[in-house]
Design brief:
The protein is mostly helical and 143 residues long. The protein is built from six helices and no strands. Helix 1 (5-32) packs across helix 3 (53-76), helix 2 packs across helix 3 and helix 4 packs antiparallel against helix 5 (111-123).
Length: 143
């Protein structure tokens, strides 16, 4: 296993992205609670839109757990692609929600930085991201 500057770069980007989503999920699951998150951030804010109540509740309750799990997976580097796709889905949902409420919502402070980090994690070839549990498991299976 070769640990070069690319490996370190993707390691730090994965950790920062993982911490951003993981800590948001932690707060929503263990402090705010998923029920209050769903009520405040989804049901109340989008009750007058086309989105059905069952979908608002479902997304509002699920997203905190997705953020928590995907953030942790990104940090340790396990199932990186799946975790990255999950946080990408959260970003799409959040972006749509903000733009539905305010058509010219400024995405530069909240959404765009996360998208840049996510894009970096997804475009780096897996064989260059060697500081992960995925890489460790792959190397063990070859021996």
């Amino acid at each position: 296993m070769r640990v070069d500057n690319t490996a370190w770069a993707v390691f730090f980007v994965r950790w920062v992205l993982g911490l951003i989503f993981g800590m948001a999920g932690w707060w929503k699951v263990f402090e705010l609670t998923p029920k209050i998150h769903a009520e405040r951030m989804f049901v109340e804010g989008f009750a007058e839109t086309w989105i059905p109540s069952w979908l608002l509740w479902g997304l509002g309750l699920a997203i905190p757990f997705v953020e928590l799990a995907a953030g942790a997976l990104l940090c340790v580097g396990f199932r990186v692609r799946e975790a990255a796709v999950a946080v990408g889905g959260v970003l799409v949902i959040v972006t749509y929600g903000h733009l539905l409420q305010q058509a010219l919502f400024d995405t530069t402070a909240h959404i765009f930085p996360r998208l840049v980090l996510l894009t970096f994690v997804l475009v780096i070839p897996r064989e260059r991201d060697v500081l992960t549990l995925d890489a460790w498991a792959t190397s063990r299976s070859r021996t």
